[in-house]
Amino acid sequence: MKALTRFVAIATSLAIAHGAFAQDQKNAKQSFPVGKAPEVKIGQTYAVETFDAWELLCVKVAKGPEPCEIGQLVLDDKATPMSDIRVFPLPPGQPALAGATIVLPLGMDLQNGMTITVDKNPPKQYPYAVCNNVGCVARIGITALELENMRSGKQAVITANIYGTRQILTVPVSLKGFAKAYTALQKRIAKQEKAAKKK
Question: CB neighbours of 168 closer than 8 A, spacing ≥ 6?
Fold first, then answer.
C-alpha cells in the first residue's frame, strides 16, 4: 500500500512537471526573453571604443554634443585600482593644449603632490586639487610638447609619497593606444561641433 501511494505521488509529480513544461513551451517568448545590449541612460558614462590600454569615453546627454575624453584605469597585480586617468583637449588660448584628471588612492602625502615621467623625459611635478572619498585628485595641464611625448611614448610613470611613511606609490601607465585614442577623441569632438553648427 505504501509502495502504491509513493508510486501515485511520483506519477502525479511527473504529470504536473510535464504540464508546467508544456505551458512554458507555449509561453516561451514571455518566459525566456532574448538579451539585448545594455541601455545607456542620460548622465551615464559609456565606452565608445577601445584602443589597447585606452578607452574613448563619453557621457550620454539628452540633446547636443556629448562631453568626451579618453581614459585608463590602472590596476595592480591583484586587480586593485591604482589610478584612474582621464585626458581631454582644452579650449584654445591656454598654456596647456590638453588637460587631465588623475586619481590616486587616499593616504597620499599632499605636500609634495605627484610626479609624472614619460619614458626618459624630465619628470614633472603637480599638486593635488582635492582629496575626497574617491581618492586624491590632481588636475594637470599638458603642453603641446608633453602631449607629443605621450603620443610617441611607451610608458608614463606616476610616483607619489604615501603619508606618514617613507614608501612611494609607483603607478606604471601604458601609453599603448594613446595616440590613436586621442586622435579619435579629437575627430569625435570636431564631428559633434560641426553637427551642432548645422542646427
Answer: 159, 160, 161, 162
